[in-house]
Amino acid sequence: MSVAVIGAGAFGTALAVSLAAKGPVTLWGRDTGWSESRENPRLPGVTLPANIHVTSDLAQITQQTVLLALPAQSLGGFLAAEGARLDGRNLVSCAKGIDLGTLEGPSVLIRAACPAAIVAVLTGPSFAADIARGLPTALTLACADADAAKALQHQLSTPNLRLYRTTDVAGAEMGGALKNVIAIAAGAAIGAGYGDSARAAVITRGFAEMQRLAAAMQAQPETLAGLSGLGDLVLTCTSEQSRNFRYGQALGAGRDFDARTTVEGAATARAVAALAARLGLDLPISTLIAGLAEGRIAMEQALQILLNRPLKEE
Ligand SMILES: NC(=O)C1=CN([C@@H]2O[C@H](COP(=O)(O)OP(=O)(O)OC[C@H]3O[C@@H](n4cnc5c(N)ncnc54)[C@H](OP(=O)(O)O)[C@@H]3O)[C@@H](O)[C@H]2O)C=CC1
Ligand SMILES: O=C(CO)COP(=O)(O)O
C-alpha cells in the first residue's frame, strides 16, 4: 500500500526516500520547482529514487496513510486550510514542537481539524541526512488505537528504520518537542564555553524538566525514557548536525543565526514557559531558553539564575 508525505522539507524528503525502498511514495510540497532535477535543495546531495512522485497538487494525495512533515508552527495554518480533504485517513505527525497559539501538540491539532482520522506520531532520533543516506536508526510510532499502531508500525518500518510502537501519543509527542528546547540549552552551554560537564548537567536536569511537564500532560514515564524522549535528547544535544543545538551554540556565543533555518525549540520554549506558568510547574532551563530566544536575558545572567537556585534533593 503506497504512502504519501506532506511537507517537502529535509525530513519529509528523507522519509520519502526511506519509504521508497518499499514502494511508491507521493511527496507534496508547496514549492516543487526543483523536482525535475530530482534533488531537493532542502536535502542537498540526495537524488530521489524514481518511484517518488513529487507534486504541489494536494488533489494527488489520495493515499490512506499520509505523513505530515511540516514544522509544528506551520501545521495549524495548513490544517485550517486543507484539513478537511485529509479527514478519515491515517495521519502521522512527524513534527517536533508545541504550537505557540494553542499550546497543543501536533496530534491535538490534527485531531481537531480531522476528527474522523486515525492520528499517529512518528518520532525519535533521526537526522534527515542520516535517514536519506540509508543509515540505520530506531523510532517510535505512537497511536492510541493499538491495532492501528501495529498496522502503521509495519507499514512505515523500512529496511533501515526499525519502528517500536506505543499507544502513548502524548508521551511520544512531548519527548520529541521538549528535547529540542533542551538541545538549545546544551548548545548554549557549549557555545558559551561552559564545557562538557555543564552540557551533561543541562541534559540531565533538562530531562527532569521533560519528565515533569510530560507527567502533567498525562504522558507515561516509560515513553520519555524511550527513543522519542531520551533517545532523541541524547542525539540532539550531542551533535552539530542538530539545528537546535547549533542555534543554542550561536546564542551562547553571542553570534547571529540564519533566521530561515527551522529551529523548532525556539517557539516551543516559549510554549513551554507558558505551560509552566499555566500548570504551576518549575521548569527553569526551558523558561530561561525562552528568555534567551526572545533576547530578554543574557547568557551569563541565565547561568547565574540556574547556579543560584535554592539547593534541593535530586
Ligand atoms: N530535519 C530533520 O533532521 C528532522 C526534522 N524533524 C521535524 O520535521 C519537521 C519539519 O522539519 P524539516 O523538514 O527539517 O524542516 P525544513 O526547514 O527542512 O523544511 C520545512 C518544510 O516545510 C514547508 N512549509 C513550511 N510552512 C509550510 C506551510 N504553511 N505549508 C506548506 N509547507 C510549509 C517548507 O516549505 P518551503 O520550502 O516552501 O518554505 C519546507 O519544505 C519539524 O517539526 C522537525 O522538527 C524530525 C526529525 C528529523
Ligand atoms: O529531530 C531531529 C533529530 O531527531 C532533528 O533535530 P534538529 O531539528 O535540531 O536538526
List keywords for this structure.
314 residues; alpha/beta; Rossmann fold; N-(1-d-carboxylethyl)-l-norvaline Dehydrogenase, domain 2; 2 domains; eight-stranded mixed sheet; binds NADPH dihydro-nicotinamide-adenine-dinucleotide phosphate; binds 1,3-dihydroxyacetonephosphate; nucleotide-binding; G3P_DH_NAD-dep_C; cytoplasm
Structure write-up:
The protein is about 50% helix and about 10% strand. With about 325 residues, it is α/β, with parallel strands linked by helices. The protein has two domains: about 5-165, 3-Layer(aba) Sandwich (Rossmann fold), CATH 3.40.50.720; about 180-310, N-(1-d-carboxylethyl)-l-norvaline Dehydrogenase, domain 2 (Orthogonal Bundle). It has an eight-stranded mixed sheet, sandwiched between helices. Strand 4, helix 2 and strand 5 form a beta-alpha-beta unit. Helix 6 (about 170-190) runs antiparallel to helix 7, helix 6 packs parallel to helix 9 and helix 6 (about 170-190) crosses helix 11. The longest helix is centred in the middle third of the chain and has 23 residues, at about 170-190. The radius of gyration is 19 Å and the shape is globular. It starts with a strand and ends in a 7-residue tail after the last helix. The model has no long low-confidence stretch (mean pLDDT about 100). It binds NADPH dihydro-nicotinamide-adenine-dinucleotide phosphate and 1,3-dihydroxyacetonephosphate (13P). NADPH dihydro-nicotinamide-adenine-dinucleotide phosphate binds near residues 11, 69, 74, 96 and 97. 1,3-dihydroxyacetonephosphate binds near residues 96, 242 and 243. InterPro entries: 6-PGluconate_DH-like_C_sf (IPR008927), 6PGD_dom2 (IPR013328), G3P_DH_NAD-dep (IPR006168), G3P_DH_NAD-dep_C (IPR006109), G3P_DH_NAD-dep_N (IPR011128), NAD(P)-bd_dom_sf (IPR036291). Pfam families: NAD_Gly3P_dh_C, NAD_Gly3P_dh_N. Keywords: Cytoplasm, Lipid biosynthesis, Lipid metabolism, NAD, NADP, Nucleotide-binding, Oxidoreductase, Phospholipid biosynthesis, Phospholipid metabolism.
